[in-house]
Design brief:
The chain has five helices and 13 strands. Helices cover about 20% and strands about 40% of the residues. The chain has a domain of about 90 residues.
Length: about 200
Amino acid sequence: MDAYLKRGLIPGPDATCSVGPLWSGATLNRAREQPIASLAAVVPVDRDNGFDDADEAGVYMCPDRSAHFIGWTTPSIIGLVTAGSDRVAQWHEVRACARFDGPVVRQMSTDDAAQQKRITDATARRRNTNALTVYLLSDPLAYGQIRVGASATTGGLQRARLLARRGQKVGAPGNWLTLPTKPTTTPLPEFVLPVLDDAFPK
C-alpha cells in the first residue's frame, strides 16, 4: 500500500495511526470505480478466450484480486498483448468497468443501460471466477509491436504491467508511445515497455 500511495495509484489515507496509514474499503472502491485518466496498462491475452472476449463482446475480463492481473485498479487505456513471439499490442480505451462476485454485480461504473447489458451479457457467457473485473473496451485504436524490456529478445509478456498515461501518451517519462485519438490501421512504432518504477517515479 505504501508503494501504491507513493506512485499515486491510490488516494490518500482516511486516517493514520501508530502502525501507519489506514484506508476504508469504501475509499479504495471509489478510487477504482471509474477509469483513471492518468493510468494505462498492458495485459497478456491468449489467442482464443482473450481475443474472443475483445473481438466478439468488446471486453477484457480478469480476476478482481490477483497480483498478476489489473482487476484491482481501473486504467483508462488497455493494451491487449498476444501470447507468443510476435508480441503485438492492440490498444483500446476503457469505456466502463464492472466488478462481480459470482453473478452479483458489486460495482458498475456506468449508468448507461446499453453498456451495462454488454458487460453482463459478456460475463454470463464466460465467468470463470467468483471475483471478476470486466472492462468494456472501445474499438481498437491501433496495433503495434511491443518489447517486454530493453534487453529482452525472447519471451512474451508474462503478467500485466501498469503504465502512466498523459493524454494520448502511455508509458513513462522519456519513454512514451503516442496513441491516435481515432482508430487507425497504420502500425505503431515498436514500443519498449517501461518498468513500474520508471512509469511511476517515487
